[in-house]
Amino acid sequence: MLVASNRGPVSYAVADDGSLRSRRGGGGLVSGLSAIGPESGALWVCSALSDGDREAVRRGVGEDGVRMLDVPADVHADAYNGIANSVLWFVHHMLYQTPLEPVFDAEFRRQWASYETYNRAFAEALAEEAAEGAAVLVQDYHLTLVPGMLRELRPDLRIGHFSHTPWAPPEYFAMLPDDIARQVLRGMLGADRLGFLTRRWADAFTACCERFAGGLGDTRVGVHGLGADADFLRARSHEADVDERMAALKEEIGEGRRTIVRVDRTELSKNIVRGLLAYRQLLDDRPEWRERVVHVAFAYPSRQDLAVYRDYTAEVQRLAEEINEQYGTPGWRPVVLHVKDDFARSLAAYRLADVALVNPIRDGMNLVAKEVPVVSDTGCALVLSREAGAHEELGEDAITVNPYDVVQTAEALHEALSMRPEDRTERSKRLVAAATALPPARWFLDQLEALRG
Ligand code: G6P
């Protein structure tokens, strides 16, 4: 069995003394696939993303069961920053803003050629590594052309593809140039089976195929709603480093205050800015919460090679500062914002959460919505966007919001903070049950069985 994804389970950095330090990769895809360890005998083909990764490839350093592809840095930059994260991510999350975007010009065509080269590098590596009849599970929007390319090279393989993002509805997908739209769909349809996180994304994909590719052909489509890994999270969140960070965080929050917690990559689709605006609205509309609540927002830098992501990170920081200046008092800092990635500190915040705020504009699943209820010490209330994939499973016991409506979101925060403890406990129990229904290991095996079956 082989897995292919842009981001792999591990990344490397060169330390001051020249040695290589490894750390866990971030994001929903890696969390989901964490279930496959080296003992599974699987080979995970991924990309060298950092200078440290490239150095690791050069030195022949690596983990068992992981092969990093070192495609030329400029080809990777075009494919990853230019096409995957500036075009395909924006299409599937419906993030473009007219009148300026999108513009598919000659530069886009040049980057598209790199995207093809990048996908071909994966297809060739997989063709070379796979045993006769092996199952290959290709992941996400970075690698949409791989199934078709691999099918041509190795008709004997069982090929699956899984999307960790939403899929755009046909009216929005139609923004892509016609030939590119068809190429993406045909690339995907090279797979025997395609997986999506929710029925809604699977249906959107099917609708796109009907409109632009003459239907699904022989390819089957299935839904696998990735859940939280309760055992791992519960054990990890009680380790010493998490306790230490909890103590520090409690200091920052102050005695006896409620917490509204969010943890995201600084990513436009996560809607962090509107979350802060909603919190400000809450402090405006409901002065009784002043001094009594703290918004703990961890916004970890993501895709910082792209100006639009850097600007977004800066805007989040600016607005948090503004709220603190506007409302803060000597003993109360209304927003505690951290932008440096720290998994142990995220778990500490999860444990302290009274309310979890998850308000994306659009999100494939959003694992944070599932993780916080599992880890929270007192059982948290969940304010959840109707546009997160997780809403399909958690909607009944969450407080649902329209992610664009900051007044409604402010009211939802008030409702969540005011929930009677016994209601909160009951709802939180049901959230945990729904959030852990399909843990990563089961999620992965289900896909594999469906592909082989
Ligand atoms: C989402 C995508 C993943 C990606 C992750 C982190 O979850 O679906 O494919 O790995 O974001 O983004 P990054 O660009 O840092 O890999």
TrEMBL record:
SUPFAM superfamilies: UDP-Glycosyltransferase/glycogen phosphorylase. It comes from the Bacteria. InterPro entries: Glyco_trans_20. PANTHER family: BCDNA.GH08860, TREHALOSE-6-PHOSPHATE SYNTHASE. Belongs to the glycosyltransferase 20 family. This is Alpha,alpha-trehalose-phosphate synthase. It comes from Streptomyces griseorubens.
